[in-house]
C-alpha cells in the first residue's frame, strides 16, 4: 500500500519519484519517503511512522486515518 500511495502522490508532486510497486522497502522507496517528508515539512528520517503515514494518507484521500478509524 505504501508504494501505491507514494505513486499516487507522485502524480501530484513532481519532486516525488514514482516507484515500482513490489512491496519491498528498499533504497528507492526510502528515498521517495524522504522526498515526501521534505515536501510536507516532516522529520526527514525515512521512517513511515504515524505522522508520515497519516500525512501521506491525508494527501491522497483528504481524510485522516484517525477519522477513518473512528467511523
Summarize the helices and strands and which ones pair or pack.
Layout: H1 2-12, H2 27-39, H3 50-61, H4 65-70
Description:
The protein is an all-alpha fold and 71 residues long. The chain has 4 helices and no strands. The chain has helices at residues 2-12, 27-39, 50-61, 65-70. Helix 1 crosses helix 3 (50-61). The protein is globular and about 30 Å long. It starts with a helix and ends with a helix.
Question: TL;DR?
Answer:
Helix content is about 60%, strand content about 0%. The chain has about 70 residues and is an all-alpha fold. The mean pLDDT is about 90.
Tell how many strands the DSSP assignment holds.
0
Distance between the termini: 21 Å
Could you state the order of secondary-structure elements as H and E? HHHH
The 3D shape can be described as globular
Number of separate helices: 4
Which blocks of ≥5 consecutive residues have pLDDT under 50? none
Strand content: under 5%
Largest beta-sheet details: none
Rg measurement, Å: 12 Å
- Percent helix, as a range, is 55-70%
Q: What structural class results from the helix and strand content?
A: mainly alpha
Instruction: Determine the mean pLDDT.
Output: 92
Amino acid at each position: 500500500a505504501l508504494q501505491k500511495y507514494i505513486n499516487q502522490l507522485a502524480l501530484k508532486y513532481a519532486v516525488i519519484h514514482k516507484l515500482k510497486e513490489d512491496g519491498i522497502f528498499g533504497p528507492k522507496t526510502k528515498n521517495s519517503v524522504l522526498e515526501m517528508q521534505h515536501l510536507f515539512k516532516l522529520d526527514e528520517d525515512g521512517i513511515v511512522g504515524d505522522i508520515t503515514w497519516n500525512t501521506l494518507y491525508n494527501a491522497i484521500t483528504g481524510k485522516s486515518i484517525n477519522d477513518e478509524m473512528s467511523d
